[in-house]
Amino acid sequence: MPESTANTAKLAKFYGDLSPTVETVREALTIAGTDPDHARARDLYERDLDCHNLGMFRMVEFAANVAAEYSAPDAGDLLLDVGCGVGGPSRYFADRFGCSVIGIDVVPVRTEVAQELATMTGMGDRVSYRVADATALDFDDASFAQVWMLDVSIHIRDKRTLFREIARVLRPGGLLVMHEQAGPLPRAMAPVMREAPYIAPSLPQLIRYIEDAGLQMLTWRDTTSIAVDYFLGVRDVLLGNSEPRGSNVKTGIPLLDGYLETFTERNGRTGVLVARRT
Ligand SMILES: C[S@@+](CC[C@H](N)C(=O)[O-])C[C@H]1O[C@@H](n2cnc3c(N)ncnc32)[C@H](O)[C@@H]1O
Fold it and tell me: Where are the domains of the chain?
């Protein structure tokens, strides 16, 4: 069953406000000394211009290193990036592994910007984006060698359907690679929970959802220090202590402080989780 219209509307407002536009990305490239008309995908993702998660490109690269320990995608493989945002991670996977990637996101402006940035960086033949809800995927069974999902499941209430859909579209032996924040979420997270749906099970409960769907848990690698470094960096930018790195530093201090308190004082945890389709 697709996520509720109210949840989707809240997400559209939240991520619509936070999303970079193609223009802000081009401006950031120009400021960094790169001609936007000749930019490569790496000029964007290595500068955090088109990644948007709890650790930005540093976390994406870490997740790819962990996945590669189990099974790196081959050049002929097709990956699904669930909740692809504006597409930085998927273009990095295509660059690094030589594979093709389809990205889906429930917020139309995200896939529009993702597609335009893919065209701008000459990646349009290997990555593509479309609007879709992760709990109602319009793909045949066993369509993908791997499914990636970076900081997305926390927004989705119906985790059983989410992981059942992921297991269905993964081919047997294929990997689910995800990044997530484990719950329960403390009161410190209230400012961000007012802005969008945040439903975070504990890590054991999350693993139960995943295994009940027919996936075998392989590993969880803690990334909390990456998330903390990222939020401290954004805070410094907002306080005027350092120059912005990315074009999407639009989060407010109360939201940042909620995350920082959660991860530094309340045992909040983030990590990369890898599971295999049995
Ligand atoms: C924190 S962002 C992560 C974006 C991207 N994975 C990245 O790492 O840059 C979460 C994304 O999940 C998307 N999302 C949330 N619920 C979704 C759903 N039910 N189906 C598809 N995408 C969803 C949001 O619109 C948003 O773009």
Answer: 5-277
Residue 241 has pLDDT above 80, yes or no: no
| pLDDT tens digits, 194-218 | 999 999 999 999 999 999 999 999 9
C-alpha 152 to ligand 1 mean position (Å): 5
Q: Decide: 63 in ligand 1 pocket, CB within 6 A.
A: no
The percent helix, strand, coil of the chain (3-state, each to 5) is 45, 20, 35
Residue 41 near ligand 1, beta carbon < 6 Å: no
How does residue 1 score in pLDDT terms, banded at 50, 70 and 90? Answer: low
Question: Domain 5-277 belongs to what topology?
Answer: Rossmann fold (3.40.50)
Question: Is 48 touching ligand 1 by the criterion CB < 6 Å?
Answer: no
- CA 50, CA 56: separation in Å to the nearest integer? 9
Asked if 73 and 170 touch (Cβ cutoff 8 Å), the reply is no
> Would you say the pTM of this structure is higher than 0.90?
yes
11 lines ligand 1 (CB under 6 A): yes
